[in-house]
Amino acid sequence: MKIVVLSSHTSSLFWFRMDMMKDFIKHGHSVIALGPEPETNWKTKFEENEIRYKQLFVERNGINPFSDLKTYRELKKFMKEEKPDKIFAYQAKTVVYGCLAAKANGITEVYPLIAGLGSIFRGEGLKNIIIKIIMKTEYRVACNASKKVFFQNNDDKNEFISNGLIQEDKIVIINGSGVNLEKFKPESLPEKAAFLFIGRLIKDKGVMEYLEACKRIKAEYPEIKCLLVGPYDSNPSALQPEALKPYIDSHIIEYVGEQSDVRPYLIQCSTYVLPSYHEGTPKTVLEAMAIGRSIITSDAPGCRETVIDGYNGYLVPVKDINRLVERMKNLIEDQGKNKIMAEHSLKLAREKYDVKLVNKSIMETMGLI
């Protein structure tokens, strides 16, 4: 079968969905990946994995209806020409307009993934309320045009049900994007406690809470290493370089920018920290679990799925820097407990989050095996 995988973020397609697309190919199917970044940058990389890549016009964070109409028209034209058998779409705009374009072409085998509800959906204020009303209408239409809809956590699923956006018999829960256990293997803990955050530098990821917590930790434990990995972003809540500069200049954090391979940094930490406000299921947490690291994350949608509080790490209230610092101190001062939690993380990664198990569930749902 010919399968199209849609996203409004090309690098996410390459780094987060490659294992899934490779499994599609292993089972005899062909794959076309659609994303917004230029073909000159990405075509060869995808072709090396036997995947066709085509550029799609989409403004990931824009709210211009004319831009969105252009995205819809491009998708409608593409599907008319390519006639895919099945479509897998994720991220808000490509879910909505991908489903609508498929419906316009009589394609019923559409399988969107709701990989977390973003800041707009959960935000406040008049502008957010208006956008939220529009998004709910769009999601309702998209779900109606879909055969099944994947969710990565129960909070998002319940949000859709309570708002009447989906029929319950269309829902399939999967354990995040999964983690490649052949790539992310157990590694020995460092001799000294160290912390790490990986993610886009946007406020909703809890990066400011992490920076402030590191500031307090370094004041009391100056020998502790606090690492930060991730790119600046175009999101409305993105941090600007000048906001990060004081923490770098005062040696509170070691910032290494965006990295194509995060394993060397995961190895350096004893505890992975993600104080995010909401996620689908955070892939970086799964990767940290797979190499055997304790986790401190928020008691928030998506994040709470990955941690059993006190077992493989700690859950802290959203935006609660005091509790975050307290839990970081707990693990600095009790490395024995940290080691046990790290072992439990690895156990959970193997039993629940193995990408092979996640992909099997997706392919069974899509009728690909």
UniProtKB/TrEMBL annotation:
Top-rank taxon, per record: Bacteria
Protein name: Glycosyl transferase
InterPro entries referenced in this protein's UniProt entry, alphabetically: Glyco_trans_1 (IPR001296), Glyco_trans_4-like_N (IPR028098)
UniProt keyword Transferase present: yes
Annotated Glycosyltransferase subfamily 4-like N-terminal domain residues: 4-153
Keyword terms: Transferase
Domain Glycosyl transferase family: 183-344
